[in-house]
Specification:
single chain, 363 residues, mainly beta, five-stranded antiparallel β-sheet, 29 strands, globular
Amino acid sequence: MKYVPRSCRLIARLIVPVLGLTALLNSSACSYLPWSPQAEASAEEASGTNAGDSLQVGSAQATPTLPSNSAPFAIASGTDRALWFAEFSTGHIGRMSLDGEVKLFSAKAVAERITEGPDDAIWFTDPASNRIGRLGRNGEVVFIKLPVENSGPAAITLGPDGNLWFTEHRSDRIGRVTPLGSLTEYALAAGRAPAGIVAGPDGKLYFAENGGNRIGRISTDGELDEFSLPNPGSAPNSIVKGPDSNLWFTELGTKQIGRMTPQGETAEFALPTESVPMGLAPGADSAVWVTLPAEHAVARFETDGHSRLITLGKDVSPSFIVTGPDGNLWFTEPNGKIGRLTPLGILTEFPALPVQAASGESK
């Protein structure tokens, strides 16, 4: 069994009580999980592709056989005024309309993080099979195999140059892939373990160095800078551009939220309750929202660091979060639901399966 960093163990503690250990080990909670040869072989077989190919193509039309279980994980907002999410346990990518209607696509992969590309497609990381995936609106799936084995592709985002940028947690690299599939990788120092990544306000990409206790910055031509965090063992993980044009990030190790200016000045803020932060998103209300799944709550941060806690109920465990096209906060729940939270704190939940599957019927 491979080494599992502390950040993954912290996330696992939040997920296992809901999904169970078997689901965690057979899926992708984070890219640093100890994948078995059987799991990798299954992923290859499902894709119908050759592991030796760098560009792999398959079909993923809306699935006619609907899964009976659901555990949505990563989530992104689309320009089609819908939410797109990755299914933790079934290998699907889902599309949810603003009124809760769901359509599932068999992505032939366990997508860990997803984002919309400049081509209206959904791009995702697939650490189990060591590749980047693209799901077109027509259902076609294309995979780009990464050259370094076991590289651990983790977070992915659209860059200011119109390319997709992603982190390779295990191989300490930042990757860039064009919409046409051309791949470039930039090496970091050993042990940096990059996690979240986001486009900054200055035309550069910022990423959290989970193992290096730093925030990294890379220009679109590959120039690297790093900024150390004040507390050792912070384990920065998720990162977003805030409404104040600063970088906001979670600290799994210190259970805090961090803020960094593009000039590298940092500040850290305590959570309104002691808990491990998971996802975060800039809100339409000029605040930063953070999910606290172990507390069944979210925290709302003003850009000056003041925060308040919003408790959602004992059956609600918010995981990853995004601001939707309607200005509300949308988050995934590992118990098979997508939550919608207004900036005023009004919660609505939707099943993450199509109505037919949720009611036990076949499509």
